[in-house]
Amino acid sequence: MQNFDEVYQVVRLIPHGRATSYGAIANYLGSKGGARLVGWAMNAAHTKDDVPAHRVVNRNGVLTGKNFFETPDKMQQLLESEGITIEKDQIRDFDKVFWDPSVELG
DNA sequence: TTCCTGACGCTTG
DNA sequence: CCAAGCGCCAGGA
């Protein structure tokens, strides 16, 4: 879906070592479909390897979709590989690594 | 074709 | 402050 494509575009623009939330993307796209559809888009994006879905978490910074990866630890592993610290499946200092598309992209 | 569920988030009780 | 419900769109049965 085209809506999903926009989501992929935003997710792809997430800088290395940063993370954003489903709601932030939904908000940037004008709440199109809401945060849920962003997560759903990630599911479709799962087939695409160009979309770093591991950099997308919920507004709490929790790795809710980690279970959807090849391995539940894969998401955390990728994030830690980028310098992001994970504490109990949650990003530490999420406010610091948080990447708001509506702010960064304008 | 219709109903239900889903990687979420906000508002209300 | 904590818990529950509703709303968003799309896809599968």
Explain this structure to me?
With 106 residues, the protein is mainly α. The chain has a single domain (2-96), classed as Arc Repressor Mutant, subunit A. 45% of the residues lie in helices and 4% in strands. It contains six helices and two strands. A two-stranded parallel ribbon has the order 1-2. The longest helix is centred in the middle third of the chain and has 12 residues, at 34-45. The protein is globular. The two termini are 24 Å apart. The mean pLDDT is 92. The protein binds a DNA duplex (13 and 13 nucleotides) through residues 1, 3-4, 21-23, 26, 31-44, 46, 53, 56-59, 63-68.
List the domain count as a whole number. Answer: 1
On the 0-100 scale, what is the average pLDDT? 92
Low-confidence stretches: none
Question: Can you say what the CATH homologous superfamily is?
Answer: Winged helix-like DNA-binding domain superfamily/Winged helix DNA-binding domain
Q: Helices and strands, in N-to-C order? A: HEHHEHHH
CATH class assignment: Mainly Alpha
Secondary structure layout:
Elements: H1 2-12, E1 20-21, H2 22-28, H3 34-45, E2 56-57, H4 72-81, H5 94-97, H6 101-104
Parallel strand pairs: 1-2
The chain binds a DNA duplex (13 and 13 nucleotides) through helix 2, helix 3 and strand 2.
